[in-house]
Amino acid sequence: MSSGRTEATAGRTLLKLSPLLIPLALLFLGGLAMTVAQSLGFWLPVPHEGGLFAAYGELLRPHILASAAHSLWVAAVATAISVALGAVFAYLIWRLPERLERLSVVYKVPLILPHIAVAFIVLIFWSQSGIMASIGHHLGLVNTVQDFPSVIHGGSGAGMILAYVYKEVPFVIILAFAVLKRLDPRLVQTAAMLGAGPATIFFRVALPHMRPALHTASIILFLYAFGAFDIPFLLSESSPGMLSMEVYNLYFRRDLINRPVAMAILVCMVIFSLGFIVAYTRIAARLSGKDRKL
User: Fold this and answer.
1) CB 232 within 8 A of CB 244
2) Quick one: which of 57, 162, 185, 223 has the most CB atoms within 10 Å?
3) Is the dihedral of CA 120, 122, 125, 129 positive or negative?
4) Lowest pLDDT segment from 6-10, 103-107, 155-159, 246-250
5) Global pTM?
6) Which of residues 18 and 60 earns the better pLDDT score?
7) At what angle are helices 207-227 and 158-180 packed, to 10 degrees?
8) CA-CA distances (angstroms) from residue 90 to 18, 85, 180?
9) What's the DSSP call for residue 40?
10) CA-CA-CA-CA torsion for 268, 269, 270, 276, nearest 10 degrees?
11) Hey, is 149 helix, strand or coil?
Protein backbone atom coordinates (compact mmCIF):
# COMPACT_ATOMS: atom_id res chain seq x y z
CA MET A 1 0.00 0.00 0.00
CA SER A 2 2.79 2.34 1.00
CA SER A 3 4.81 1.35 -2.09
CA GLY A 4 1.86 2.04 -4.37
CA ARG A 5 1.32 5.44 -2.82
CA THR A 6 5.00 6.30 -3.27
CA GLU A 7 4.89 5.31 -6.94
CA ALA A 8 1.77 7.39 -7.46
CA THR A 9 3.46 10.40 -5.85
CA ALA A 10 6.54 9.96 -8.05
CA GLY A 11 4.33 9.69 -11.14
CA ARG A 12 2.52 12.93 -10.31
CA THR A 13 5.86 14.67 -9.70
CA LEU A 14 7.20 13.54 -13.08
CA LEU A 15 3.97 14.63 -14.76
CA LYS A 16 4.29 18.12 -13.25
CA LEU A 17 7.92 18.34 -14.37
CA SER A 18 7.24 16.97 -17.85
CA PRO A 19 6.96 20.43 -19.54
CA LEU A 20 10.55 21.03 -18.46
CA LEU A 21 11.94 17.51 -18.73
CA ILE A 22 10.60 16.59 -22.18
CA PRO A 23 12.24 19.49 -24.11
CA LEU A 24 15.45 19.01 -22.14
CA ALA A 25 15.53 15.27 -22.86
CA LEU A 26 14.72 15.79 -26.54
CA LEU A 27 17.44 18.39 -26.94
CA PHE A 28 20.07 16.31 -25.14
CA LEU A 29 19.14 12.95 -26.61
CA GLY A 30 18.60 14.49 -30.04
CA GLY A 31 22.02 16.09 -29.96
CA LEU A 32 23.60 12.86 -28.75
CA ALA A 33 21.84 10.85 -31.47
CA MET A 34 22.98 13.33 -34.13
CA THR A 35 26.57 13.13 -32.83
CA VAL A 36 26.61 9.33 -32.91
CA ALA A 37 25.00 9.23 -36.37
CA GLN A 38 27.49 11.69 -37.89
CA SER A 39 30.41 9.83 -36.30
CA LEU A 40 29.21 6.75 -38.21
CA GLY A 41 28.86 8.66 -41.48
CA PHE A 42 25.12 9.41 -41.51
CA TRP A 43 23.35 12.79 -41.87
CA LEU A 44 26.49 14.53 -43.08
CA PRO A 45 26.54 17.58 -45.39
CA VAL A 46 28.95 15.78 -47.74
CA PRO A 47 29.08 12.12 -48.81
CA HIS A 48 31.02 9.97 -46.38
CA GLU A 49 33.87 7.84 -47.67
CA GLY A 50 35.14 4.86 -45.76
CA GLY A 51 33.57 2.29 -43.51
CA LEU A 52 31.07 2.64 -40.71
CA PHE A 53 33.77 3.03 -38.04
CA ALA A 54 36.38 4.76 -40.19
CA ALA A 55 36.22 7.94 -38.08
CA TYR A 56 36.96 5.97 -34.92
CA GLY A 57 40.03 4.50 -36.58
CA GLU A 58 41.29 8.05 -37.14
CA LEU A 59 41.33 8.57 -33.35
CA LEU A 60 44.46 6.42 -33.17
CA ARG A 61 46.49 9.14 -34.84
CA PRO A 62 49.42 10.20 -32.60
CA HIS A 63 48.37 13.85 -32.27
CA ILE A 64 44.84 12.89 -31.15
CA LEU A 65 46.20 10.40 -28.62
CA ALA A 66 48.58 13.12 -27.39
CA SER A 67 45.63 15.51 -27.03
CA ALA A 68 43.73 12.90 -25.01
CA ALA A 69 46.70 12.34 -22.71
CA HIS A 70 47.20 16.11 -22.34
CA SER A 71 43.51 16.61 -21.48
CA LEU A 72 43.66 13.88 -18.83
CA TRP A 73 46.84 15.39 -17.38
CA VAL A 74 45.43 18.91 -17.12
CA ALA A 75 42.12 17.72 -15.67
CA ALA A 76 43.75 15.39 -13.13
CA VAL A 77 46.34 17.89 -11.87
CA ALA A 78 43.89 20.81 -11.70
CA THR A 79 41.35 18.65 -9.85
CA ALA A 80 43.88 17.23 -7.37
CA ILE A 81 45.29 20.68 -6.49
CA SER A 82 41.84 22.29 -6.29
CA VAL A 83 40.40 19.58 -4.03
CA ALA A 84 43.46 19.52 -1.75
CA LEU A 85 43.60 23.32 -1.35
CA GLY A 86 39.82 23.58 -1.02
CA ALA A 87 39.73 21.00 1.78
CA VAL A 88 42.52 22.72 3.71
CA PHE A 89 41.03 26.21 3.31
CA ALA A 90 37.55 24.97 4.26
CA TYR A 91 38.97 23.47 7.45
CA LEU A 92 40.90 26.65 8.30
CA ILE A 93 37.81 28.82 7.72
CA TRP A 94 35.73 26.46 9.86
CA ARG A 95 38.25 26.86 12.70
CA LEU A 96 38.10 30.67 12.57
CA PRO A 97 36.18 32.64 15.21
CA GLU A 98 32.68 33.53 14.00
CA ARG A 99 33.45 37.23 13.46
CA LEU A 100 36.39 36.39 11.20
CA GLU A 101 34.48 33.61 9.47
CA ARG A 102 32.11 36.22 8.00
CA LEU A 103 35.03 38.13 6.50
CA SER A 104 36.23 35.00 4.75
CA VAL A 105 33.47 35.32 2.11
CA VAL A 106 36.06 37.03 -0.10
CA TYR A 107 37.11 33.56 -1.23
CA LYS A 108 33.85 33.40 -3.22
CA VAL A 109 34.90 36.20 -5.57
CA PRO A 110 36.33 33.86 -8.27
CA LEU A 111 32.97 32.07 -8.40
CA ILE A 112 31.21 35.10 -9.88
CA LEU A 113 33.85 35.55 -12.57
CA PRO A 114 33.24 33.87 -15.95
CA HIS A 115 35.83 31.29 -16.93
CA ILE A 116 36.91 33.43 -19.84
CA ALA A 117 37.65 36.31 -17.41
CA VAL A 118 39.76 34.00 -15.27
CA ALA A 119 41.68 32.97 -18.38
CA PHE A 120 42.43 36.65 -19.11
CA ILE A 121 43.61 37.14 -15.51
CA VAL A 122 46.08 34.27 -15.94
CA LEU A 123 47.23 35.81 -19.22
CA ILE A 124 47.76 39.22 -17.62
CA PHE A 125 49.78 37.78 -14.75
CA TRP A 126 51.70 34.84 -16.22
CA SER A 127 52.38 35.52 -19.90
CA GLN A 128 55.90 36.54 -20.89
CA SER A 129 54.65 40.13 -21.27
CA GLY A 130 52.63 39.97 -18.05
CA ILE A 131 52.93 41.29 -14.53
CA MET A 132 55.01 38.44 -13.07
CA ALA A 133 57.54 38.71 -15.92
CA SER A 134 57.83 42.47 -15.31
CA ILE A 135 58.33 41.94 -11.57
CA GLY A 136 60.98 39.32 -12.26
CA HIS A 137 62.77 41.69 -14.64
CA HIS A 138 62.71 44.63 -12.18
CA LEU A 139 63.99 42.37 -9.38
CA GLY A 140 66.85 41.22 -11.60
CA LEU A 141 65.67 37.61 -11.67
CA VAL A 142 65.60 37.60 -15.48
CA ASN A 143 67.56 39.78 -17.92
CA THR A 144 64.56 40.45 -20.16
CA VAL A 145 60.88 39.61 -19.92
CA GLN A 146 61.39 37.14 -22.77
CA ASP A 147 63.65 35.15 -20.42
CA PHE A 148 60.72 34.59 -18.06
CA PRO A 149 59.61 30.92 -18.16
CA SER A 150 56.80 30.25 -20.60
CA VAL A 151 54.14 29.25 -18.10
CA ILE A 152 51.14 29.48 -20.41
CA HIS A 153 52.30 27.94 -23.65
CA GLY A 154 55.17 25.85 -22.39
CA GLY A 155 53.57 22.51 -23.25
CA SER A 156 52.72 21.49 -19.68
CA GLY A 157 49.25 23.04 -19.51
CA ALA A 158 50.34 25.10 -16.48
CA GLY A 159 48.34 28.14 -17.59
CA MET A 160 45.10 26.16 -17.79
CA ILE A 161 45.85 24.45 -14.48
CA LEU A 162 46.36 27.85 -12.81
CA ALA A 163 43.05 29.10 -14.21
CA TYR A 164 41.12 26.01 -13.14
CA VAL A 165 42.63 26.05 -9.64
CA TYR A 166 41.80 29.75 -9.19
CA LYS A 167 38.22 29.15 -10.32
CA GLU A 168 37.56 25.79 -8.65
CA VAL A 169 39.08 26.10 -5.16
CA PRO A 170 36.16 28.29 -3.92
CA PHE A 171 33.70 25.71 -5.26
CA VAL A 172 35.41 22.98 -3.21
CA ILE A 173 35.50 25.23 -0.14
CA ILE A 174 31.74 25.78 -0.31
CA LEU A 175 30.98 22.06 -0.54
CA ALA A 176 33.45 21.05 2.19
CA PHE A 177 32.56 23.92 4.50
CA ALA A 178 28.86 23.01 4.33
CA VAL A 179 29.76 19.52 5.56
CA LEU A 180 32.02 20.83 8.32
CA LYS A 181 29.24 23.06 9.64
CA ARG A 182 27.42 19.85 10.60
CA LEU A 183 30.46 18.46 12.43
CA ASP A 184 30.37 18.73 16.21
CA PRO A 185 33.35 20.93 17.27
CA ARG A 186 33.60 18.93 20.47
CA LEU A 187 35.11 16.09 18.42
CA VAL A 188 38.05 18.33 17.60
CA GLN A 189 38.34 19.50 21.20
CA THR A 190 38.29 15.91 22.42
CA ALA A 191 40.96 14.88 19.92
CA ALA A 192 43.14 17.81 21.02
CA MET A 193 42.67 16.88 24.69
CA LEU A 194 43.82 13.35 23.87
CA GLY A 195 47.04 14.73 22.39
CA ALA A 196 46.26 14.83 18.68
CA GLY A 197 48.17 17.51 16.75
CA PRO A 198 46.63 19.85 14.11
CA ALA A 199 47.64 17.58 11.24
CA THR A 200 46.22 14.48 12.97
CA ILE A 201 42.96 16.28 13.72
CA PHE A 202 42.65 17.36 10.09
CA PHE A 203 43.38 13.95 8.57
CA ARG A 204 41.64 11.74 11.15
CA VAL A 205 38.66 13.88 12.22
CA ALA A 206 37.82 16.58 9.66
CA LEU A 207 38.85 14.92 6.39
CA PRO A 208 36.68 11.79 6.81
CA HIS A 209 33.65 14.05 7.27
CA MET A 210 34.52 16.08 4.18
CA ARG A 211 35.25 13.02 2.03
CA PRO A 212 31.77 12.59 0.41
CA ALA A 213 31.71 16.25 -0.61
CA LEU A 214 35.28 16.03 -1.91
CA HIS A 215 34.41 12.99 -4.02
CA THR A 216 31.49 14.84 -5.55
CA ALA A 217 33.66 17.89 -6.22
CA SER A 218 36.38 15.72 -7.79
CA ILE A 219 33.98 14.17 -10.29
CA ILE A 220 32.46 17.51 -11.28
CA LEU A 221 35.75 19.38 -11.56
CA PHE A 222 37.60 16.62 -13.42
CA LEU A 223 34.91 16.16 -16.04
CA TYR A 224 34.51 19.90 -16.50
CA ALA A 225 38.25 20.48 -16.98
CA PHE A 226 38.47 17.44 -19.27
CA GLY A 227 35.85 18.73 -21.69
CA ALA A 228 35.81 22.51 -21.24
CA PHE A 229 36.38 24.83 -24.17
CA ASP A 230 36.51 28.40 -22.89
CA ILE A 231 39.76 28.35 -20.91
CA PRO A 232 41.62 26.11 -23.43
CA PHE A 233 40.52 28.48 -26.21
CA LEU A 234 42.77 31.17 -24.67
CA LEU A 235 45.38 29.20 -22.78
CA SER A 236 45.80 25.85 -24.55
CA GLU A 237 48.96 24.99 -26.42
CA SER A 238 48.57 24.28 -30.11
CA SER A 239 50.33 20.93 -29.83
CA PRO A 240 49.36 18.95 -27.94
CA GLY A 241 46.07 20.76 -27.52
CA MET A 242 43.07 19.88 -25.43
CA LEU A 243 40.53 17.51 -26.99
CA SER A 244 37.91 20.26 -27.00
CA MET A 245 40.19 22.38 -29.18
CA GLU A 246 40.85 19.40 -31.44
CA VAL A 247 37.09 18.99 -31.94
CA TYR A 248 36.69 22.73 -32.59
CA ASN A 249 39.43 22.73 -35.20
CA LEU A 250 38.11 19.63 -36.95
CA TYR A 251 34.52 20.89 -36.98
CA PHE A 252 34.96 24.57 -37.85
CA ARG A 253 38.41 25.02 -39.39
CA ARG A 254 38.91 21.93 -41.50
CA ASP A 255 37.08 20.40 -44.46
CA LEU A 256 33.62 18.98 -43.95
CA ILE A 257 34.98 15.49 -44.54
CA ASN A 258 36.64 15.74 -41.09
CA ARG A 259 33.32 16.17 -39.30
CA PRO A 260 32.89 12.42 -38.52
CA VAL A 261 36.25 12.44 -36.72
CA ALA A 262 35.17 15.41 -34.60
CA MET A 263 31.93 13.63 -33.74
CA ALA A 264 33.78 10.41 -32.94
CA ILE A 265 35.95 12.30 -30.44
CA LEU A 266 32.82 13.72 -28.79
CA VAL A 267 31.23 10.27 -28.56
CA CYS A 268 34.35 8.85 -26.95
CA MET A 269 34.46 11.77 -24.49
CA VAL A 270 30.86 11.07 -23.44
CA ILE A 271 31.55 7.35 -23.01
CA PHE A 272 34.72 8.10 -21.03
CA SER A 273 32.84 10.56 -18.79
CA LEU A 274 30.15 8.01 -17.97
CA GLY A 275 32.77 5.33 -17.35
CA PHE A 276 34.76 7.69 -15.14
CA ILE A 277 31.72 8.44 -12.97
CA VAL A 278 30.94 4.74 -12.52
CA ALA A 279 34.56 3.76 -11.83
CA TYR A 280 35.23 6.65 -9.45
CA THR A 281 32.01 6.03 -7.51
CA ARG A 282 32.78 2.33 -7.08
CA ILE A 283 36.38 2.93 -6.05
CA ALA A 284 35.33 5.62 -3.56
CA ALA A 285 32.64 3.34 -2.12
CA ARG A 286 35.12 0.48 -1.80
CA LEU A 287 37.69 2.68 -0.05
CA SER A 288 35.03 4.06 2.30
CA GLY A 289 34.00 0.49 3.15
CA LYS A 290 37.59 -0.39 4.03
CA ASP A 291 37.83 2.70 6.25
CA ARG A 292 34.70 1.68 8.13
CA LYS A 293 36.12 -1.80 8.70
CA LEU A 294 39.28 -0.29 10.11
Assistant:
1) yes
2) 162
3) negative
4) 6-10
5) 0.88
6) 60
7) 150
8) 38, 8, 8
9) T
10) 110
11) coil
